[in-house]
Structure formats: C-alpha cells, structure tokens
Design goal:
The longest helix has 16 residues. The mean pLDDT is 98. The protein is built from 14 helices and 13 strands. The chain has two domains: 234 residues, Type I PLP-dependent aspartate aminotransferase-like (Major domain) (Aspartate Aminotransferase, domain 2), CATH 3.40.640.10; 87 residues, Aspartate Aminotransferase, domain 1 (Alpha-Beta Complex). α2 runs parallel beside α11. It is an alpha/beta fold and 338 residues long. Strands 2-8-7-6-5-3-4 form a seven-stranded mixed β-sheet, sandwiched between helices. Strands 9-10-13-12 form a four-stranded antiparallel β-sheet, covered by helices on one side. Strands 1-11 form a two-stranded parallel sheet. It binds pyridoxal-5'-phosphate (PLP). Pyridoxal-5'-phosphate binds next to α3.
Length: 338
C-alpha cells in the first residue's frame, strides 16, 4: 500500500528502532528519565526556549498549553479551521471551560488586524476576557499553508499591546521552517508556548513536546499529571523523538518536492478542480465531473494507493518519509491512467 492518508502513518526506521533499544530510561514522573530529559532540553535549546515537556500527543500539548494559559471563562482567538477547535474533541470547553472567537482566515492563517478586531473590551462585563491567541503553522486544513513570518510578528505585536498570550500549534512547524528557510530561534522568540509534533513528518511513532519558559513548563507538568499524561520509563519512545529531531528535519524538503510532482500530475486531469496552493507536504484538491471525491479515493485504492476524502468534493494527499521516489512515480502513472 502507498499510504497518503496522513504523515502520522510512518513506521520507525531500523536506525530509529536501534536508538530506542539503546535508550537509557528512568521514572519520568520523578524527572529521572535521562532520554526524556535529553529530548526536552534538546528541543528547548533548538528554539532558544527555557524548557520543554514531553507528552504523548499534539492534542495533549495543545490542551495543556490552553489550560496553563487561561482561567475558566476566558476566550481564545483562533482560525475557524484550527486543529485545537475542530479536531481536539471540544477540549477547549471540556478541559479549560473557555470560549472561542473564531476567525475566517486565509487557508487557516489569520492576520494581525483580524486578531485585533476580535479582542473583547476588557471593561465590558458582558464579554469573556480575551486571553490567548493560537496560531497553526503549517495549517493542516489550509493544505499545509505557511505563515509569512512578518505576519506572525505583527500578530505578536497585537498580543503584546493587549496583554494576550501567544501559542503556536506547530504540529508541522518543521515543514514550514524547511519550506521557507526559517530558523527555529525566531519562533522561540515570538511565542509564549510552542507545541511540536514528533510523530508527523519527522517520523517518530509517538510524542510531542511543549516548549515555554520554566514557570510555564512547571505548571504544564502539573497539568499533564492531572490529565493522566505522566509516563514512567517513556525514554524508550522519547528516543525515537530525539532521533527524529536530529536526523529527519532537512529531508522534509524531499516530501515537499514529491508533493509538487504529484500536484503536477493532478493538474493535467480535467476531473480535478481547484488545488489549494501546495506549499509543503499536503495536497488538498477538488474532484469533479466523472468522479466524486469518494469514488476517486476508491479508484486509487484499487491501485493500492490510499488517500482521504475530506469533504464530498475534496481529497487530501499527505506526503511523508515512508513515501519513496518509486511510490511517487507509481502514483503519477496511476493518476495519468485515469
Ligand atoms: C495541526 C495539528 N495539530 C495538532 C494535532 C494533534 O496531534 P495528535 O494526533 O498527536 O494528537 C494534529 C494531528 O494531526 C494536527 O494536524
């Protein structure tokens, strides 16, 4: 099977498994797992941030950040497509009792003026207190779209001027950094907290890291325990994450190149409608005419190619490190034959 359903489907490589077997471990709830400590420090240093917290998922790092930054009744400003709102099981309400101000951004990206206009008047008792702005980069439902860093800085300025905290859901942040030749440190300077996923394009089987200053991470560590996310000898899985950070970032450029090649094949077909601009490893495209999105996905499956229909008319293909050049070529040939 050539599996384009998500970049979460990757399996650990032999070298990654080796790193896992060799990992020294200890009880992380006591702070004694050397591999987790190494991963948290490594990730924090990469971004020039003070501390990190290893968690089981990106949902957990995002939800812990929201809980740590807010009080019940506060409001969070985010794009309507954002993962924290759409795909985290209503966790903002469930875990943090906060409301949400949704912004209709451009493929998942908000502007500084949209954020500024969404801030409630702190003196109006009718309104929830605006507390946190959360961005997603790359934006998953935006088709892996990337923020322009100047736009991020402009939003940061709005946050500073209005005493708002600033969180980044960086599940695929390294895709944006590689695609735009950016540096991790510039993100570390811009945000109060960042969530990075190790289990997406970077190819680890599990795990995310939440980054922030020491007091924030101390608070986050307590919340992780309350959420049932304190793990014991989890260095065995953290080793895969550390390996991923040390070895699998630069190669994301190859996934972006593969995504472009597949996009070019799609562009030749008259039953393919709008393709969202492909900036990284995600291709979201409209299927029209002789196939519905679901029928197109089924046709691909007959050829051992897996993709997802994300709406009645749209299909998503996600390229990742288990997709080889040969698989890309086979996919192109199959698309050409339809
Ligand atoms: C943008 C974004 N944020 C957060 C997550 C959550 O990650 P996890 O599946 O590890 O909970 C995902 C998962 O796909 C995602 O795409």
């Amino acid at each position: 099977m050539i599996d384009f359903r998500s970049d979460t489907v990757t399996k650990p490589s032999q070298a990654m498994l080796e790193a896992m077997i060799q990992a020294p471990v200890g009880d992380d709830v006591f702070g004694e797992d050397p591999t987790i400590n190494a991963l948290e420090n490594y990730a924090a240093n990469m971004f020039g941030m003070e501390a990190g917290l290893y968690c089981s998922s990106g949902t957990m790092t995002n939800q812990i950040a929201i809980k740590a930054h807010t009080q019940p009744g506060d409001e969070i400003i985010c794009d309507v497509m954002s993962h924290i709102y759409q795909y985290e099981g209503g966790g903002i309400g469930f875990n943090s009792s906060c409301s949400v101000k949704l912004i209709n951004g451009n493929r998942g990206r908000m502007t500084a003026s949209q954020v500024a206009e969404s801030i409630n008047n702190i003196h109006d008792v009718h309104k929830p207190i605006s507390k946190l702005v959360s961005l997603e980069n790359t934006a998953n439902r935006g088709g892996g779209s990337c923020y322009n860093f100047d736009d991020i800085k402009a939003i940061q300025q709005v946050c500073t001027n209005n005493q708002l905290l600033f969180h980044l859901d960086g599940a695929r942040l390294f895709n944006a950094i590689v695609a735009n030749n950016e540096r991790t440190e510039q993100y570390g300077k811009a945000f109060d907290s960042i969530s990075i996923c190790l289990s997406k394009g970077l190819g680890a089987p599990v795990g995310s890291v939440l980054l922030g200053n020491k007091s924030f991470i101390q608070k986050a560590r307590r919340i992780r325990k309350v959420f049932g996310g304190g793990m014991r000898q989890a260095g065995i899985i953290a080793a895969a994450g550390l390996y991923a950070l040390q070895n699998n970032i630069d190669r994301l450029a190859q996934d972006h190149h593969h995504a472009q090649l597949i996009t070019q094949a799609l562009q030749q077909k008259d039953f393919i409608g709008e393709i969202l601009p492909v900036e990284t490893n995600i291709i979201i495209f409209e299927v029209k005419g002789k196939y519905t999105a679901q029928q197109f996905v089924e046709k691909l499956k007959e050829e051992n190619i897996l993709a997802i229909a994300i709406s009645p008319s749209q299909v998503r293909i996600v390229v990742h490190l288990d997709i080889t050049e040969n698989m890309v070529q086979k996919t192109i040939d199959v698309i050409k034959s339809f």
